[in-house]
Amino acid sequence: MNPGPRDPERSYGLTIETHGLTKKFGRQVAVDGVDLAVPPGSVFGFLGPNGSGKTTTIRMLLGLASASAGTVNLLGMEMPGRFHEVLPRVGALVEGPAFYPFLSGAANLHRLDAATRHTVPATRRARVDRALDQVGLAHAAKKRVHAYSLGMKQRLGIANALLSHRDLLVLDEPTNGLDPQGTREVRHLVRSLAHNGTTVFVSSHLLAEVDQMCTHAAVMSAGKLVAQGSLADLRRSGGARIRLLTPDGGPARNVLVGLGLDCKAGDAQPGGETLLAALMPASGASSARIDGSPQARSGEVLAEDIVAQLVAAGVRVRGFVVERESLEDRFVALTGEGFDVAQ
Ligand SMILES: Nc1ncnc2c1ncn2[C@@H]1O[C@H](COP(=O)(O)OP(=O)(O)OP(=O)(O)O)[C@@H](O)[C@H]1O
């Protein structure tokens, strides 16, 4: 979860691994000591607000920009030292593809494939057809690219990245500038690409997009990696609080404080007073029960313990809800800024 210090065990089998990756532009530190760990087979969302350092990181991963410090391993090989071995196994879409508008989609792919070292001319036609089919453009193969929508052009860019079998696809903001239909098409495509075992690393500034497409995510904020892990872990890592409605505000407050919880007054309700308390005890306080259960291990006081103690103290409970922080709340807390959560 936490980017944390280097863990020597974690490097085994990672598709992308960086340690202390840093890029400075003059005095500005655009990427600051990033430790990425991208597991094989994941659809990995690289999430962060505009200007947080995503594109710069991606450029360093692919050897398009040199790092000021730190190391990059792709597919277990050091970059940029083993560039020639690594790059044929990596497809990339960075800063939009450039196509000849007067040529068809298929003709553009033929030209791009012919310009790539290590490609076999005899299988070119079949590979172009398969890539167009994979991105849902078989029907528009013979259409000139100037008649393509933005979404179709973006899918053609992905088709270009798919001309050979790839172990890793790196896509920088593939839905940027697309209309809702194009966005849906590209999101669907990204999800389906991972089914054949390709690891997909995709950057986005949209939380909802990462939530829909990805199995894992890393969050960038002002050049730093502030969290990474599976989406399930990221969700679980959010804090929780209780919302209690009681006519016995004073005694209820005493019970919550006695359990080490910070207690705040919520809205007054007809049934009494609303009290809010985070389940994580304030620092220095001890938890109500340490019995090895998952909740207790996380350090949070268990909701059932709170209810039991309230009842034992004679507090009348009219309402009791556990509210867990949403992924959106979590990411806003992590990045310290309003996160773009648009669809
Ligand atoms: N070539 C460059 N020279 C100077 N500063 C740069 C250069 N490239 C990027 N930066 C700066 O580095 C920071 C990170 O930029 P980067 O493009 O990596 O962010 P990003 O997260 O990809 O944002 P966006 O989604 O807007 O592209 C920004 O402050 C940007 O202005």
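^ adenosine-5'-triphosphate complex. The pocket of adenosine-5'-triphosphate is lined by residues 25, 30, 48, 50-56, 205 (CB under 6 Å). The chain has two domains: 16-236, 240-324.
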